[in-house]
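Homework-ish question, so no full write-ups if that breaks the rules, but can someone show me the predicted structure for this set?
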Amino acid sequence: MSERTFKRFCPLEELPPGAKKARNLDGVPVLVCHTGEGIFAVSNLCSHQEKFLHAGRVRAGRITCPLHGAQFDLKTGAALCLPATRPIATYEVRVVDGWIEVCA
Amino acid sequence: MNQPAKLGRGLDRCPNAPSTQEIIARDKHPAPFWVRSESYQFLGDEDIPTERYYDPEFAKREWERLWPRTWQFACREEHIPEVGDYYVYDIGRFSFIVTRVAEDEIKAFYNACLHRGTKLRASGTEGNTRLFKCPFHGWSWNLDGSLREVVCEWDFPHVRRESFALPEARVARRWGFVFINMDPDAPSFEEYVGEEALAHFDAWGMEQRYIHCHVAKVIPANWKLTMEAFMEAYHVLETHPQVAVSNADANSQYDIYGEHVNRFISCLGVVSPHHAGRFTEQDVLDQFTLGDSSFVADAERKLRPGETARQRMADLLREQFEKATGTSLAGVSDSELLDCFSYTLFPNTFLFAGISLPMVYRFRPLKDDHRKCLYEVFFLRPVPEGRPRPEPAPCQLLEPHQSFTEAQGMDPGFGAILDQDTENLRLEQEGIEASAKRGLTLGNYQEIRIRHFERAVDKYVGR
Ligand code: FES
Ligand SMILES: [Fe+2]
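A: Not a homework solution, just the prediction itself:
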């Protein structure tokens, strides 16, 4: 049985709307994006060729891999276009005591 | 209504009805020069041969001679606001990465690796990047298109950097639109549009608009046939009976400008000549359909004695629209608020001026089926004053069985009109292929845009 443990990611004030931030949470590369629709946490690795996503553009609830242009839905992780065909992981997020916490 | 022609050769107009110019001249807020101009010309009355709508040979000639030589709307500037933003525009097998390479410079790169050809970006995508890196062997190009890296360069001594920059199509930017043209010998965009039409479009301020809604659907008809369904108001009576009550359909105005632009003006808020005497001004007001009726949803609609439906509608729209969007309409005429101004910019774009129907249409044949096309509708709303430009709405692709009314952000009344328009098209495509008659017969005046448009097609395919 795996237990749901949330880990502190960063203080909320470091991630205003429109911002995104990547860091390793116990070895897991996590990307958190604060969009107009809320805060989302996904894997920071593109499912296409395992490149980092964090420099990608976020628009309309999706992130675009800056290297080859694959797009992923931030809510579901679904791959939305070539060259990616597989989803990326998504993680639960919550805000506690002014901290963004991620269950990764 | 049905009197025989008296003047002939394109000079006849709908009898016993005011002209478009007469209707507009009565408005409280006077119309600008581009509304008040007239530019009709008789272009012959021969049938239009129909093989152009189904013959694969004709489609092949279009792919070879028309699409690679015309200016096409690729994307809006707001799709690529920041340096490094790109938008992939496809037309048939051709594909371009339209990229903002510097603050005020946009390039359109052919979307193919110069090593073994792989598309550098998938079709239908957009994003932001600092370089274009091929997903196959990793060759890469800088944002400006210069070659950045050849992996294992020692194996390619024959690759000279200077000749391995990404090839480009030409780019023109106007009214917030980015246009491309593959033909290095084509006229400039300005020449292509022509001075008069350019002045019309320049007057609209489309650069101050943003895409509020973007819907696409595959239509089971040739792209030209599909476009032509939107080039006249002649079909309103039969196809859109709900609109005819408050639309001057048979007395709409049709104009042509040079080789690549034509238009109609169709007045709203006045009864159709087909229905003259059968509806009161109050009926006309009650039946009024708009592109975005949410603006006047709960307005008072009872007319005072002597008041016209058209003027009340203009006043209402002015007031509600200013409130809803935070933009000022001082200096905007009643006609611009109410009427439908439909312009074709050859080959495949419609631009609508005006406030109540702020659309842009784009039509593209499907790459592997010239008897179908992708039809896109964009609604452009003014950027609210003193607020940041909203992001452009992403494209919603409807399934063939879906109604336009199902698209988010689509006015239900307008969606229903688009459904009526596109439902005809399957029957028209099939009927043309089934027919014993090999030509379309056109009205001299009301269908001049179709003749004018097909003339330009003929010019490019070379017949
Ligand atoms: S095909 Fe692009 S690097 Fe080989
Ligand atoms: Fe129509």
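Now go work out the reasoning yourself. Hint: The mean pLDDT of chain A is 92.
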